[in-house]
Amino acid sequence: MIEKRLFMLLASLLLYGAGLSAQEMTVRGVVTGGSDGQPVAGASVVVKGSVRGTTTDVSGTYALDVAADDVLVVSFLGYKTQEVNVAGRTAVDVRLQEEAELVDEVVVIGYGTMKKSDLTGSVASVRASDVTQVSSGSIDKLLQGRVAGLTVIDNSNDSPEGGVTVRVRGISSINGSNSPLVVVDGVPMGDAGNLKSVNPGIIESIEVLKDASATAIYGSRGANGVIMITTKSGRKEHQNVWFSGKVGVGVFSDRLDYWRDPVTMARLENESYENGGAEGPYTGKIWADGTYYPSVSEIESGEWPYRTRWADYVFRTSVTQDYNVGIEGSNAKNRYYVSLGYYDGEGMQHNDDYEKYTVDMSYDNQVARNVKLKTKAGFVRGFRTYNNGTSYGCNPLWPVYNGDGSYFKSQPKDYSNPVMINNEVKKESDDMSGYALVKADWSILPGLTLSVSGNARAEQSRSAFFNPPLYTQAGDNYNGEGGNSESTYVNLTADGYLTYDRTFGDHAFSAMVGGSYENSVSRGSSITGRGFSNAALEDEVVSGADKVITTTSRSQEMLASGFTRLNYTYKNRYLFTFTARADGASKFAEGHRWGFFPSGAVSWKMEEEPWIRSLGFFDQLKLRASYGVSGNQGISPYQTFERFGYDYYWCNGEEYTVYGIGYQDGREGLGDRFVTYAGMANHELTWEKTAQLDIGLDLSILKGRLNITFDYYYKRTTDLLRKQYLSPSTGFDTVWVNDGEIRNKGFEVAVTGHIVSTKDWNFSATGIFSLNRNKVVSIGTAENSGCTVDANGICYTQYGGSVYNDAFLNVLAIGYPVNSFYGYMVNGIIQTPQGDGSSPNTRPGEFNYAGLNADGTLDPDRRVIIGDPNPKFTSSLNLSLSHRIGLDLSVMMYAVYGNDIFSYRKLTSPALMSGRWTPERPTNERPSLRYNRQYHASSWSVEDGSFLRISNIMLGYTLPENKIRGIKHLRVFVSASNPFTFSKVSEYDPEVGENGIGGVAYPKVCVITAGAEFKF
User: Fold this and answer.
1) Sheet strands (E) in 98-222
2) Which residue, 43, 377, 811, 939, has most beta carbons within 10 Å?
């Protein structure tokens, strides 16, 4: 009986198996993940309701025997689990979406890493793939609009080198550095703004540390925030060979404004002279300087034949090339990465080029069971040529060449021909830099690790120029002027720190303590020659010039530091962090060199509370609060000592050199005609300090589909390192002091929503909003700091460049934002004569200044604050759309609202001049044309600088795996950078410098880029 039952059971199983075999099939596919569609290795693919399953290989592929009506459950850490119906298909590809678990991704912080969910400070992350799809000579400008609280002002326009202004949570310093510190692979690299030594193609991740808790670990250099960059070190998988290439074409995003109608130009120029009481130039006469100006009738009839479009000779369609190739891989004990990069950037103007070669290498080795060794090294070689500032606004009535082929000059001292300048004037530079890093991590005991690292950086740069006779004013003055200069920079840094981590029950504890030493030496030399009997070899034979001027310089600065960080977590809900650093800087005198910078932070992971978890609503709900102090020593060395310099003077027709205490610190006034002298010692100079409070909230709901980060901050900077203006009786103009206070406060919001998430379509959006309010609280008094108190009670000191009649436009005024505009209010245009009408300034067609006297002079006591270049807020919106087949589309928009700019082009724009005041058309918007009018800083030139820019539009396609044999990854894309800008300013572009002063030479450049990425 038993045998019979066993037989029937086996028969039933065989029959069932035969039936099952009849329904089984093999399904294959590829699992990818994230917005970039990268293959996901190790993903779990399981038949729902069973234990049958498999995992994906290194290329993301899988194969599994299933029934035709089975459902696949695909999951991987950090991604949303997906269920997919087989529905009889033999090929099923799955695109995983990033899930709320991403709050546990590891981010880089100072001297270590931490899970994002365990952060107590304000730290923002930027994925490298989001910023490296566009070519740039510098990584800084690619961060614009990516991080709340991070302001990137790109007023370099199309400079092939890059170069931008970077700020974290406003301006905190007056004369010291305001730029955040850049740290690459744990090594401080200096201030952000022109980080061309790092190849964007090798960047793995970017973190921005914003509050005192996050930045205090860097002590004296963390007051302005920290940008952490981690470069690639090779993937933990089989060997890969990869290549990426981008080619961009630059065109102007708006129409150039110049005189296209010479007749109108000549008539308006004559009108300008006639309104000034003089005869206009275009009357068919030779002027005193030897220039012949044709009459309007000669121009109109064609008798004067020249119609030169100088823009065609000055500008070109720029082409930028960016290529990177490398190899990466790993085995059980080693990981390696080697990259070669080439960047060739062209500016829109001829002879404005930058070429760069990069080599980067990384090698990690598990030298012993508990010892890891990391090494990195790199080299950068760059070449730069300059176009010497050629202008497309030259007189269109002048030709490029004379009949004999020589360059046209309207008179012997005319040096404005841009073709002549580009071809004959030399200005170029080249640079080399290299770095090497060695780091060892020794796991002494479980949880106890010793890390020791050493880093060396070296930079060398050279520049050369030559101003030939006949073609340049300096060349004519000195019978040729040329020279070259060289500079070197060597930085050595050593770090060592112990880290201890332990978890026991509900308690988790980690401690880090260490020290750092940094030594930097800069050297420079220059040689200038004047008077060349033979200019054929230009700057190569400077020593043979009639007069040779040489200068040399050397500076050294050292920084010794000790630091610690303590982290404690209870029940994975309550987190506490204490960070402190002590810095000793050689820049300050004995007794003032050391500064101590502590910070503390607490965080409450509310989603871990049972009563909140029971709601089933929050994926993350974390409150953060921090307070701390960081320092700033961002001034040049030797400011505490008396400094010597030299100057030249003429006596009885001979030039003499005089040496003594004091040196030329800069120039001021109209045309930079006044020299400012510094060099007075201040042995009491010490640290500038910034205290910051931050309160934040991290929120994630709807299974990670909506994520919100909010931060409120309050920053107070005291003991400002600034230049105090002195009485002329001292013999000096300025001296460095610790004096004054600046406050910044504001809030930041970042919202990310995964709006559509289906098996075919994914659509997400990220919005960023940043608001900052800046105020000068104190700059001393008129007696002790040289500030001015005007008749309106405004206490201010000059700050920034001068404009119009030697008046300083930008000032520091107590109770107002940094860089506020100071000048006269203008109430439209005068329509009827004022007073007796004897002064040209009181006649109809002139500015109706508040404070205009009957004699045409202005009352300086009527000057007020006329504008604020600081925006009320900045924001950005990033939209991303992708389809299962591999197509993706992204759009980024960036907006600035509420800032004022001071526009130069409002006066000089040819397109606007036709709207001038005339007796026949007495407008109240623009003054009449008058060549000898003296302009003053006024509200008339202040405009609303708000703008909305479409920063980038990108369309890409990522080929699914295994479509082409041997290719692991293939992506092609095309993008347009800065195609559209919406603004009402008179300037070509509303994004001017931090001081708000306009003068943008030409429209924003739109770059159309096509690129491809391969991995074999």
Assistant:
1) 106-109, 112-115, 123-127, 150-153, 165-168, 181-184, 187-191, 203-209
2) 811
- The length of the chain is 1016
Among 100-104, 618-622, 770-774, 971-975, name the one with the lowest average pLDDT: 100-104
- Cα dihedral 823→825→828→831 (10° resolution): -90
Closest CA to 946 of 989, 977, 999: 989
**What confidence category does residue 51 fall into, taking pLDDT thresholds of 50, 70 and 90?**
low
Minimal CA–CA distance to 678: which of 715, 639, 705, 717?
Answer: 639
Q: What is the pLDDT of residues 525-578, one digit of tens each?
A: 999 999 988 777 777 778 888 888 888 889 999 999 999 999 999 998 999 999
Q: What would the DSSP string read from start to end of 708-744? A: EEEEEEEEEEES-EEEEE--GGGS-SEEEEE--EEEE
Asked whether the beta carbons of 109 and 209 are under 8 A apart, the reply is: yes
Predicted confidence (pLDDT) at residue 22 exceeds the cutoff of 60: no
> Which residue intervals of 479-619 are DSSP H helices?
610-613
3-state SS assignment for residue 509:
strand
DSSP letter at 117? G
Neighbours of 278 (CB within 10 A): 13
List the structure tokens of 530.
């004047």
Tell me how far apart the alpha carbons of residues 27 and 62 are, in angstroms, rounded to a whole number.
8
Residue type, 819: N
The 10s digit of each residue's pLDDT in 663-696 is: 777 666 655 666 677 777 788 888 889 999 999 9
Which residues fall within 8 angstroms of residue 336, CB to CB, at 6 or more apart?
Answer: 234, 327, 328, 329, 330, 361, 362, 363, 364
Q: What is the pLDDT of residue 707?
A: 94
Token representation of residue 820: 């506020």
